[in-house]
Amino acid sequence: MITCGRAKRRKTKTINVGQVAIGSTAPIVIQSMTKVATVDVTRCVKQISKIIRAGCRLVRIAVPTRADTAAFAKIVQKVSVPLIADIHFSAARAVEAIEAGAAKIRLNPGNIKDRESIHRIIDAAKMHKTAVRIGVNEASIRDLKAGDVPPRKRTALMLKEMKSYVRLFENRNFTQLVLSAKSSDCLRTIEINRLIAETFDYPIHIGLTHAGLPEDARIPSAIALGTLLTEGIGDTIRVSAAGDPVEEAKIAKQILIALGLYERQAPELIVCPTCARAEIDVIKLARRVKKALAGIDKPLRIAVMGCIVNGPGEAADADLAVCAAKNKAYLYKNGRKTAIVPESKIIPVLLKELQNL
Ligand code: SF4
After folding, report:
1. What are the start-end ranges of the H helices in 172-279?
2. I want to staple 267 with a disulfide (CB 3.0 to 4.6 A). Which of 11, 234, 300, 305 is the partner?
C-alpha cells in the first residue's frame, strides 16, 4: 500500500493510456462510454465533449462493425482525450481499432478465446503502444451460464479466467495491461476485485456492471466501488448506468469526492435534514442556494442549517453558513458570525454574499 494524500492506494504497475497514466500514485481516472451510434461521428464527438466536461479523462466507444472502427479513426482525430475501443467477439475489430488510434482496447476473455487471434491483437498492440484491458464479465463466462453456481465458485471461476488470459499476454511479453472483473452483484464485485488485487500488480478498472437506471445504480455502485476504494483497490472507475453518460461521470465523481480521492472544483452544499426545530423552509432555501452555486467553480463549503442546534458547528467549517433562528438567521463567514438577517432577507443576502466569495 502507498499513501496518496489522505487515501491508501495499492501499489501497482503504471500503465499509460495515451497521455493518461493509470495505477499507483496516478490520480484515479473516471471514465464513461458513449451511448450514441459510433458511425454518427458528429453526435459521438459531441457526447464525448460532454463526458469530458463532466470529469472523465478516458472515454470508451463500442466498435461492433467495420464501419464503427472506420468512424472511430475519425473520432480519435477530433477529441482531446485518449479513446478506448470496446471489443467483443472480433479480433479483426480489435486490430482495426488499434490501427485507428485506440489508446486502449477492452477485450472480453469470454468471447475472444483462440490463441492465434489473441497473438494477432498483442502484436498490433505492441506495435502501436496500445494498452489492453482484460475485462472479465461474470455474465460472459461459459461455466457460469449453466445455472446454480455458488457465489464463491463464481468468483473463483472469474479469477481462473483472468489468470489464464493474463498468462497469454505475459507469455508473449505484453504487460501493458489493466484488469477488470465485473458482476451485477455488489458483494461478488467486491470479492473478485479483492482476489485480483491479491493476485496481480496491474492497475484495476472497477465498476458494477448492469447496475440499472441512474437512480437505482447510484447506491449499489457507491457501496461496491466505495468499499474497494477504501481498501486502496481501483485505479480507474466507471459507474454503469442505463442513462446519460454525464450522470455516470457525476456519480463516479461523487463517490471519489466522498472518499477524498478527487479534488473538488465546485462548491459543496451542506444542508441539515430539517426537523420540527427548523425555523425556516430549509429545503426551499437549499434549492435556491444550490441553483446560485451552479456556475461557481471554486471548492467552497456552504451550509444551510434550520436552527442553531447544529448550525454553529457546521458553520465553523464553512466558507459561508446560514443558521436560522426565530424570524431571523445568523450569517457566518469562515466560522465568524458576521450578520443577523431578518427572515425576509435571508435569500437575497445569502445570494449576494455568494457573489463576493
Ligand atoms: S439543524 Fe436544527 S432544524 Fe436542522 S435537523 Fe438539526 S436540529 Fe433540526
Report:
1. 186-199, 214-230, 245-258
2. 300
